[in-house]
């Protein structure tokens, strides 16, 4: 493979090396895996103004956490720190660009890696968002979005009005007991083939690696289309939004705009080829009702998607289209 570098001399920097020697991108497991708990005697008890969520607008994993923080009405309880969406050779940085913070508000840091080293001076993994920081013990509680969102569903409920608590929701909330098996089962293949599938496709560095991921990606989108079509429901598992919707949304809202071109996921487009998924995506984005609370739209930042992925790929060109980011309802 040619290593021609049109974007400058940084292309070979470790931060941009996504594929392994065989051309496949393999996401490393997150390292910080503690849980915030409603139990006041736990290691990380839920408290107001104790925890901080670090993220940027570009990242789909971070987007999950941002959606749940707002859906749950935790804006006054969990602080949000937004970093720039451009992946630099030093990882994510604070620089004040694009309306983000100039410096880390807690320590004045300029790089996310500094928080990782403050939490663990021996840390060796990647410096990823999202992460939840504990101001009291000054460490990272968790940097795995699938776990962060689960803490947010329930563990801060005592700070919320009765009706917003998961136990009091007639639907059972975002991860209802009666749907757990179905949601977990869907999460498993949607994570591998769709959420992470677009990355494995886009970061593949050989034709074989690319094909071995792009084909299952579209087979899985076909499967999701059929799931919605067969059930005829508004959301993936009925009339209420669940975790499965939140996890799929952050990938599909980036699909036509960014993954289609930049990650070469260009076999089909959501808007033209998947009527059910397109209907589902637009209703989450556009409808402002008691289910969506307008949160899906307000946490979506289209302007960062194309540019963020182009930069992460060291691609100097930001694609011009599509003309419309998301079609009207
Ligand atoms: N498993 C993690 C993945 C998070 C992740 O990979 N985030 C990306 C941004 S979309 C990141 O921070 N990448 C920086 C890097 O790998 O250097 C999660 O779901 O929380």
TrEMBL record:
Signal peptide: none annotated. It comes from the Eukaryota. The record marks 259, 309 as: Lowers pKa of active site Cys. Glutathione binds at residues 92, 126-129, 144-145. Pfam families: GST_C_2, GST_N_2. GO terms for cellular component: cytoplasm. CDD domains: GST_C_Omega_like. InterPro entries: Glutathione-S-Trfase_C-like, Glutathione-S-Trfase_C_sf, Glutathione_S-Trfase, Glutathione_S-Trfase_N, GST_Omega-like_C, GST_Omega/GSH, Thioredoxin-like_sf. Transmembrane segments: none annotated. One of its GO terms (molecular function) is glutathione transferase activity. This is GST C-terminal domain-containing protein. The lineage of its organism: Eukaryota, Fungi, Dikarya, Ascomycota, Pezizomycotina.
């Amino acid at each position: 493979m040619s290593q021609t570098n049109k974007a400058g001399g940084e292309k070979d920097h470790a931060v941009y090396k996504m594929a392994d020697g065989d051309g496949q991108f393999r996401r490393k497991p997150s390292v910080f895996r503690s849980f915030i708990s409603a139990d006041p005697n736990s290691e990380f008890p839920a408290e107001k103004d104790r925890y901080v969520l670090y993220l940027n607008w570009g990242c789909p994993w971070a987007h999950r956490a941002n959606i749940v923080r707002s859906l749950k009405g935790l804006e006054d309880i969990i602080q949000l720190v937004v970093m720039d969406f451009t992946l630099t050779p030093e990882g994510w940085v604070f620089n004040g660009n694009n309306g983000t913070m100039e410096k880390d508000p807690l320590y004045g840091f300029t790089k996310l890696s500094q928080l990782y080293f403050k939490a663990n001076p021996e840390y060796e993994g990647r410096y990823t968002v999202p992460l939840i920081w504990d101001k009291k013990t000054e460490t990272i509680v968790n940097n795995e979005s699938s776990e962060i969102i689960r803490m947010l569903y329930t563990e801060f409920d005592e700070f919320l009005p009765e009706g917003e608590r998961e136990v009091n929701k007639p639907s059972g909330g975002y991860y209802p007991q009666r749907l757990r098996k179905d949601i977990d089962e869907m999460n498993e293949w949607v994570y591998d083939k769709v959420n992470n599938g677009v990355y494995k496709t886009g970061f593949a560095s050989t034709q074989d690696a690319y094909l071995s991921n792009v084909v299952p990606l579209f087979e899985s989108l076909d499967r999701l289309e059929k799931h919605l079509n067969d059930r005829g429901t508004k959301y993936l598992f009925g009339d209420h939004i669940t975790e499965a919707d939140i996890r799929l949304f952050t990938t599909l809202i980036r699909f036509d705009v960014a993954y289609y071109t930049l990650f070469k996921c260009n076999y089909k487009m959501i808007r033209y080829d998947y009527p059910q998924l397109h209907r589902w995506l637009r209703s989450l984005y556009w409808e402002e009702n008691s289910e969506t609370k307008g949160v899906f739209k307000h946490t979506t930042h289209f302007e960062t998607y194309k540019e963020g992925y182009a930069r992460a790929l060291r691609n100097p060109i930001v694609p011009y289209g599509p003309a419309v980011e998301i079609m009207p309802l």
